[in-house]
Each structure stands twice: as C-alpha cells, then as structure tokens.
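Help! Submission page says 'invalid entity' but I think these are all valid:
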Amino acid sequence: MTAPADKFSAGIEAIDCITPFGDATATTAALLANRRALELTPVLGRDGGDLVPLALTGPMDETLSPRWLPLLKRMAAGVPAAAWGTARFPVMVTSSNFGVGSFYAFTRDQDTRHLQHGTPSSTIELIRAQFGWGEQVHIFSHACVTAHLGLAQAARLLHAGIAERVLVFSFDFVSPFVAGGFHSLKILNGGMPAPFSCGETGSIGLGDGAAFAVLTRERTQFRLEAHALHNEMFHFTSNQPDGVGFDNCAAAIATAAGGRRVWVKGHGTGTIEAGRLEAEALARHFPDAPLTGWKGSLGHTLGSCGLVELAVAVAALRTGSIPGTVGSAAPTFTDNVALEPFASADFDGAILTSNAFGGAHGAMLLGHD
Amino acid sequence: MIERFLHHVCVELPAADEAAAAARVRLAEKFPRNAVRRMTHLGLLLGSTLDGVPLGPGDAVVFASTFAETRALEDFLKSFPSASPMLFQTSIHPGSVQQVLIGRQQPIARLWPLAGRARLVEHAILTALIEPVERVALVGGEERGTWILEHGMASARSFAFGTLLTSDAVGAAGRARFTPGDGADEACPTLERFAEALAAREPLHWQGAGGEFSLEWL
Amino acid sequence: MTDSLPLELKELIIATLKLQGVAPGDIPDDEPLIGSPRLGLDSIDALELVLAIEKKYNVKIGNSEESRAALASINTLAAFLRPRAPGA
C-alpha cells in the first residue's frame, strides 16, 4: 500500500492554459463541441515519414528562437504580478521535454545557438530572463505526472509556511525529437486515439500544451484539496498486469475524497492495456463517477498534461458542463466512460489523474464552492 | 526549523575515464544480471550508492541531476532518422533511478526528480525535508558527456551520491537542516560539490530559499 | 531467404541487444523470445529488435500488436520475414 494522499488544501488564485484551440475557455468550448485538435502529421521515419496524430500550435520546426517562447509569453501575461522566483513566491516549473528538441535541430544544421536552450536548466534560464523571475525556480521532470508533482510541492510549500504564493508553470511542445521517440515506441501510430474505447490496436496522439496556476493559502472558489502519488517501478513502459498500481493511487485519493460526489478526468491516452487497467481501477474506486478524458482531442501534452487538463476542468466547471471523452465511441472498457458532456451540478468535486513511464501515478482532488 | 538525519551515506566518485562498460564490470554483482545489460553509467553509480538500502512502498525518493541521461541522449540523437526506442526510453528523466528501482521491482510512494542547476541542491534538500513520509532517499549524480560536453551541455565528471534521511537521530551520520529566515540567497553548492562534501563528511552552510541550509556531521 | 535465417536472426538478436555470454545455440527456435526468463528480454528489447530487423531486411513492422505477434519466437519471426523480404 502506498503512502496516504497529502491533504494540504491550496486555493487556485488564477489558472489558464494554451492549446491549439487557445486559452482554457476556448479549449473547453471546443471540447464541448466535440472538436478534435489532433491532425495526421508527418513524423520522421525510415521511409521519409509516417502520418501520426499531432495537435500543434504551429509548425514543428525548431527555430533558433524556440517556437514555444512567444506562446509562453502570451500565456505568462495572464499570471498575476508578484516577485516570482523569490523565496516567498517560488516558481515550480514542470515539463518532460523542456527544449530538448533543440539538440536535434543542432544535429541537423550544426548551429550552436540551438544548444542554448536544450537542457532543462538552460531552458529555464532562457525563460527566467524573459519573464524576470528570480532564482527560486524549482524544476521537476517526471514525464507525464510532472505537473502533479509541481502542484503537490506547491501545496506543501504553502502548508509549511515557506511560501506565500506559488506559481506552477508547465509546458511541453512537440518536436521531431519527441515525435520520433514516441513513434519508435510504436504507440504513436496512424490511428486517432480513442481513450477508454475497446479496440484491437491503440494509438496515442501528441499535443502542444502549456498552463499555469497560482496557488495560495487563501480559500478560493476552486481548491486543490488532496494529492496522491504512487510509483510501481515494475517496468518502464508497462504497468503491473493486475492493475495494482492504478488501484494504489486511486485508493489513496478516494480516501481523501471521503464521501464526496465526484466526476473523474482520467489519463486516457488511447493505449489499450493501460487504458483498460485505468478505467477498471477508477470504476472500482469511484463506481458512481462518470469518467472522461480529453487526449482524444488535445493529444497527450506530456509533462504539462496534468495542469493543462486542470485548467480545462476549472473552465468547464465555470460553464456548468464537463466535456465528454472526445474521439471515443462505444463499446468502452467500463460503463462509466462519459462519451458526451455532462452537467457538473450533480457533483461537488472532481478527481484528475495522470500516469507516466515507470508506472508513475498521480491524482488530485479538485474542490469548489 | 526542519531537520532530518542522514543514514547510510554513500558516494561514487569513479576515475575520470571510467566508461559505462567498465562500471558494469566493476559493479555487476550489485544488480540483477538481466538488469545490468541496459543500465547506464549513471544508473549503475546510483544503484551502487543505494546498495544495501531497502526501500518500501511507503518511502519517497528525491533525485537530483542537471543533465541526467547524457550518453543516452547523445546516442539517441545519432540514431535518427531511425530513432532507437531503447535510447529514447533511456534518455527520459528520471531514467537512471528508475533503472535501479525497476531492477529491484521496488514500488515506492513518491519519486521527486529535480533538474536545474544553480539551486538544485537546496531544492532537492528542501523537497526531502518537507516530505511527510518517514524514510526519504536523497540521491543524485551525473554522467560524463562526450560531444555534448564539448558544448558545455553535460557534466565533465561522472559521480553519484545516495543517503537515507529519517527523523531518527540514533545512529545517524549527519543532519540536514533548513531554518527559515530573512537572509539573501548565497551561492548554493553544486551537485558535484555536495557529493564531495558527503564523501568527505564535510559540513556545508549557505543561505537560500528563504532560510539557512546546513549539513552537519555527528 | 535461406535455411540460415534462424541462425542469422539469433546473431542479430545477440548483437543488437548486447547479450553477453549468449550464443546462438542458447536461443531455441520455438520458445518465446520476449518475456521468458531464459533471455530476460522485455518489450523495449522487442522494439529495439524490430528496428534492427526493419533496417536489415528492409521491411516494415507496423504497430506494437504486430510486433508482438512477429516476435513470438524465432520460428514466427522467420515466418513473418520470408514472404516480406525474399532473398538475403
């Protein structure tokens, strides 16, 4: 059994995201309209390229000034002002890839300027300089659960009295490096992802995504009330076949949720085995909760997915309608998969989950007035 | 003031020219035979520092590395256009510590992989200190790069450290402490400097993250 | 393709996956390649092997399900390759 969930409540003072649809409000509207951001796009392969589902905010080419920088600047304009990057106002940056695509660009044209933002630390130095942040920028990198770590750590720093407000800043943008890597794993294939749908073959899509949240000790309308984490350490790319890893994390967050009526936003990338294990575990621990997932439209935004999808969840709650699992169709692995939008008024909280390589699991409890 | 006590302090500072193949031979007995084949230099060194430290599903691990899986990254880049799935998988942070724990088939509660550079050590220590679970392994390290090193984007040295932090002072080798205060940030030790201090049982003190960090030996 | 294909495949497996202390004779023709304790190969090894096979024999193995089926054993792999890559 894993450790119990953290129950350090943190108010969400501000939150937003950027996807190919736009900000959180625009993204939620697109999901409610059942629109798909993913398009079949050529990615590197032995024969000059295969078509795979990608949701891009722009062409994937690695330019000398990174293509993601203007988008992050645009999003950062919405961050409330504070002495970000100082001890009382630290920043948690979460990403899986940072600017690693620049290394690939360097191998293509040998322009050393690409290397200035290839590593996590050099990427953050570029961003710090652009945004005027101080040095207190904590950098987390744990693949697709990374955003959960940043949010959980932010809550801990607030609870410990070390920080007054914390900015969690998350991003991952697709590059030939990343797309080529996932394509080599044969999970980024020619079919559109259909999260939680029964099928013989599965495929993921990759998407550009960035998001921020400012967390505070003050009580706000929307709050992160608990965080659960678990690491199976069974295999790099597959989960324990009995689903115990999913069960451990789901049990911890279910305990924290108490008897609350919740809906669940799952990880749901479109793979078959993990999707089935996830759906079944969530159905076991939240039998009355509709299960939804948005990667069938937005693609998998990797290290930023936990925060991008949290921003969408908050925006959706403001509308009163929660998007269904875009891109999926019956039959589904479990009966609780929501294929259509549903009203949030019937619920008083939400569970949001993510999973990652190495059998890493993250879950958070979103509460609201 | 938040403090934890250091138990089992182990540091790997191999010869500058040690390659992964040599480390595999030197350290093979510490790992399952099937796992060693695919382990990177950093994975082997980290695993060596955790040898004899049992971890459990209620424990946490904090992992700090600026450059992480440098050699896998270098080789993955060279494998294009036929991108190698094994090198891609291996290059993903925090692959090295996962190599060790997956080799042991050892689930843990929480893994906190930190990247960064200038203030990486204090962020890693702070993460370990505010972890609610009783046992936290604090590990970190780098592996020496080749062509990426020529451009300053890798470590010039391979090294690793591992220590177990608990609230139990009995039998502890040292103590890590954070005391909140108003002092301005001072230079934070580099990851390599921190590893050397652990190896030499050398005390460290500096201001950072809104307080004073201290590493003391008992 | 000649009768030497199974041997050729075993040598490719040993070289690609750096199986030290393993000889071609240690790899049975009809036992599972992936997941068996004899060789200790997993799904990542399978993918790396698929890449090597695709390059050597100029074939395409599509998705992870097709890879799994082709790599069930040396015999199934050889049977998969023979119609798709005639001649050595």
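Support: the input was valid. A stray whitespace character was the problem, and the output above is from the cleaned input. Chain B has a mean pLDDT of 95.
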